[in-house]
Design brief:
The complex is a heterodimer of chains A (113) and B (112). With 113 residues, chain A is mainly β. Chain A is 0% helix and 53% strand. Chain A is built from no helices and 12 strands. In chain A, strands 2, 5, 6, 10, 11 and 12 form a 6-stranded mixed β-sheet that branches. Chain B is an all-beta fold and 112 residues long. Helices cover 0% and strands 58% of the residues of chain B. Chain B is built from no helices and 11 strands. The chains are: A mainly beta (113), B mainly beta (112). The interface between A and B is medium-sized, with 25 and 26 residues.
Chain lengths: 113, 112
């Protein structure tokens, strides 16, 4: 069975600073994908970044980067230069080869001016 | 381009009444389809997913069911709603293992 753990229920970050959101996962499937999503208060789910289990380099998308440590089974999201609009809930998700896609409990990020 | 439609946006239903939420995808074929439920301020709980017509995988035993009568249509149903069925229901689709899922706008269900 697969499991995704996000241990930080809420975080505060100062505007323009970087923040790291933790995500660990557990799976016996050698082939899987890791995803991060942002959910603002409106409820929409916004895809941020993807990392494949066989990717050699950490994924980056603009101000988002994924710190992938396969041996530790962790896929932390780093948001650089935080903006007020980054205040939202952030979810880590994992999709193994059976097409199941499961999410963690989420981390609420509040950016302070 | 691909789009996903989910309706209704909000729904208030009495306890014991039936439920039918519909989700359709346009602009792609053979999508993988998902139903999630989210309690207020909580994570997404995977309810069902489908890799093809008539193929439904259930993740959580409960009084909900799902069906996929057509390639791009995914329906979430209940014969008798419980108070605990209240929540934010999200439908999603994705094309392949290494692609992201795209979500509908969600349905806020309140069972009274």
């Amino acid at each position: 069975a697969q499991k995704i753990t996000q241990t930080q229920p809420g975080m505060f970050v100062q505007e323009k600073e970087a923040v790291t959101l933790d995500c660990t996962y557990d799976t016996s499937d050698p082939s899987y994908g890791l995803f991060w999503y942002k959910q603002p208060s409106s409820g929409e789910m916004i895809f941020l970044i993807y990392q494949g289990s066989y990717d050699q380099q950490n994924a980056t998308e603009g101000r988002y980067s994924l710190n992938f440590q396969k041996a530790r089974k962790s896929a932390n999201l780093v948001i650089s230069a935080s903006q007020l609009g980054d205040s939202a809930m952030y979810f880590c998700a994992m999709g193994p080869s059976d097409y199941k896609l499961s999410f963690g409990a989420g981390t609420t990020v509040t950016v302070r001016a | 381009s691909q789009t996903i439609h989910q309706w209704p946006a909000t729904l208030v239903q009495p306890v014991g009444s039936p439920l039918s939420l519909e989700c359709t995808v346009e602009g792609t074929s053979n999508p993988n389809l998902y139903w999630y439920r989210q309690a207020a301020g909580r994570g997404l709980q995977l309810l069902f997913y489908s890799v093809g017509i008539g193929q439904i995988s259930s993740e959580v035993p409960q009084n909900l069911s799902a069906s996929r009568p057509q390639d791009r249509q995914f329906i979430l149903s209940s014969k008798k709603l419980l108070l605990s069925d209240s929540g934010f229901y999200l439908c999603a689709w994705r094309w392949a293992l290494n692609t992201e899922a795209f979500f509908g706008q969600g349905t806020r269900l309140t069972v009274v």
